[in-house]
What we know:
alpha/beta; TIM Barrel; 9-stranded mixed β-sheet; 36% helix
Amino acid sequence: MLPLYLENKDKIKKTKEILLSILENCNLCPRDCKVNRLKNEKGFCKTGRFAIVSSYFLHFGEEPELVGRTGSGTIFFSNCNLGCIYCQNYTISHLGEGEEINSFELAKIMLKLQKLKAENINFVTPTHVIPQIIEALELAIEEGLNIPLVYNCGGYEKKETIALLDGIFDIYMPDIKYADESIAKKFSFADNYFKVVKEAVLEMHKQVGDLIIEDGIAKRGLLIRHLVLPNRLASSFSVLDFVRSISKDTYINIMDQYHPCFRAYEFKELSRRITDKEYLEVLEYAKTLGLYRGFLL
Length: 297
């Protein structure tokens, strides 16, 4: 299966120009900061004209369908458009560890990962640097990039921005963190999170459909992640109701690895790991809905 961006090469330049123009009065994401990032002004994401990369490598800890036989070519971008107070990567997402790079350097990273036999290029936290990614993609295509692209995000995406990416990304991998708007605002400083994520995820599914797996390796489609939080803070049942409304064949990784990080200990309700009971009840509910891909019970 040919990556979508190779089927739509003529679209890349125009999309790049539109996205870069948005940086002049940035409203790429729901924050609508309206800063001029082309002049290195910085809003919520603390990122100016150029992307900041924390690290890149062949990742073997992602979903098996992404890892495949040779690993997912993962690029971790610094900073984030969410402010999760329990972030497990807070040194990257909150403290901004990393090095600022230009589009030529980012293109070289993509090509290096492909040379290392990566199954895909996995952009982690791409939301605030999507213009820079497309700018680099145009260069990488010219040098022979030909593996799938993964949009690995926190879910707080503007539908209109995702719509601009139609025909470019092969796999969308959003988190759906919460269904309770007040909890999302308290712990991620995100207004209207569930409303926003639902609109964005529906647009993603419209573009790529359910996850297509060939020979055990994901090639195209939607892959959703959901992290179970203690004390039912994520309203996981409501999240799953929405996931089921997309398609019974939706792939959803229901994750159990929550542990208190960063500022989580400041909040009693977040200051412990989840219990087996809390996790199993979410798995069982998913099964009652007819969901079956991405988790085991």
